Amino acid sequence: MTEGLGARAPKYHRVADALRREIRDGELAPGQRLPAETTLVERFRMSLPTIRQALGVLRAEGLIESRHGIGTFVKEQRRLQRRSRGRYGSARDHQKLLTHHLRHDIVFAGRGPVPSHIAEVMGIDPGTEVVIRRRHLFDKDTNQPEEIGASYLPVEVAGGTFLEEPTVVPKALFLCVEDLTGRHYTRARDQWIARMPTADESSILELPTGAPVMHVVHVARDEDGDVLEVSESIWPADRVIVIDDYPVEQEAEQPAAASEV
Amino acid sequence: MTEGLGARAPKYHRVADALRREIRDGELAPGQRLPAETTLVERFRMSLPTIRQALGVLRAEGLIESRHGIGTFVKEQRRLQRRSRGRYGSARDHQKLLTHHLRHDIVFAGRGPVPSHIAEVMGIDPGTEVVIRRRHLFDKDTNQPEEIGASYLPVEVAGGTFLEEPTVVPKALFLCVEDLTGRHYTRARDQWIARMPTADESSILELPTGAPVMHVVHVARDEDGDVLEVSESIWPADRVIVIDDYPVEQEAEQPAAASEV
DNA sequence: CAGTGGTCTAGACCACGCG
DNA sequence: GCGTGGTCTAGACCACTGC
After folding, report:
1. Residue A77 pLDDT > 50, yes or no?
2. CATH fold label, B80-243
3. Which residues sit close to strand D, CB under 7 Å?
4. Cβ–Cβ below 8 Å for A195 and B242
5. Which residue has the higher pLDDT, B86 or B70?
6. Which of residues 19-48 of A touch B (CB under 8 A)?
7. DSSP-assigned letters across all residues of B152-209
8. Domain over B11-74 is classified CATH 3.10.450.50
9. What is the pLDDT of residues B36-77, one digit of tens each?
10. Which of A25, A74, B136, B173 has a CA 20 to 30 Å removed from the CA of B71?
11. Quick check: pTM over 0.90?
12. Where are the CATH 1.10.10.10 domain residues in chain A?
């Protein structure tokens, strides 16, 4: 679409545009190193800050990544498939496949005050004591961090059980909860948000500057509507694609007026 | 978490941190204007470029927004609820509610070559001729752009029908297709990606610098597995939250080995 | 050590929105 | 006209990596 910016465009836009085209056309392949900033200064006959500003644009677009002392590289665009509604039922097979590629580090398990954004979906006061399990997930092959996860369980559900211990549980968390309580997971709600990472998330997930995260909050309830568990996952959004397969319901309803979605 | 950076941290980090805390603590409320850059130069006793670098960090985090000639403001964090699997069946009521807040502009309807990322999910060659309907959606109240949308239909499905005309269709698109073809939507697959916007998307959606987009590609097939329709939606990710409500399937399966997701 | 990107400065001029 | 943020420069020094 925007091809060949006019001479009126800011210099750093023209530089970003030229480099973006070289990346898109494969002249600069994924993984390849870009010319050094000083080289780009000579090539485009601009000042270093201007060149750096152009690189900042491409960095924010997720196209390149700079490594201090080494160079600037075209990013590899690999995305790990994640499955929506992937915790339960028939999707278990896929989930199992996925988790076998991942290593779990339990970074915390025990009681603590519930964070406010979780309290909100649980319908309790912020700071109420709950059982919290925090984990970091890494790719077994590359050792790259792939997820920051946490589960929040009401004390009535998980208090006094092995879920307060910092060990990997023997099976899917929801099966443990069902066994321990005799209550059944009946309905779930997922909330998806894409946002910019906090500084902590950025460092744990080793995110390049400007890369967003995908933040999923999962609420599970029993048949009475009581919350059994809230889980949240934070993924590096530039390395994730979420897949959702489902049957189309064949209900005959009155047609909506003018909805083109 | 990161509270009070040491004196070793870069200056622009310290400035960003101070302003971030003021925003989080409400001293700088959403919608409020920040002090002018020159004022911040005096307050923090740093150079203008350093102050601007700090503001760039907050801008990339989605916390502030600068308007040329006016000032820099704390962003309002309003998110429009979007429903996953919201096109069909019982979710129609919610979808109808949503679409009644939105105004549709059909920006194109007719035949054209299929883009490569759509061709891939349709299983056809890039550039094959298909029927394309492109739309922009705006909030009726605020007139703010909320979605860039497009539908791609095989010529066998929509060729020669009113779907090639640039008018709003009388009912949900999938109902039109079912009526016109006698074929039935049976299975669907959604693919979700969060990424940085292109320059075009950024300008159409009026995105502040550094704000990501949510990109959903929806594939619908009939009972034979043939593609009836591919739709894509691009939303400003900083103004969207996706909600997915669903029942938990109660299948008894063999437990997975060590999956804590 | 040399080469890379990261931080920081002082200062200039331009473009925009408003009164 | 004035205050705002946007663009651009020349140059300095630091920090990291690998040889």
Report:
1. yes
2. Chorismate lyase (3.40.1410)
3. A 10-13, 46-50, 53, 67-70; B 34, 36-39, 48-49, 52, 66-72
4. no
5. B70
6. none
7. EEEHHHHTTSGGGSSS--SS-HHHHHHHHH-----EEEEEEEEEPPPHHHHHHTTPPT
8. no
9. 999 999 999 999 999 999 999 999 888 999 999 999 999 988
10. B136
11. no
12. 11-74
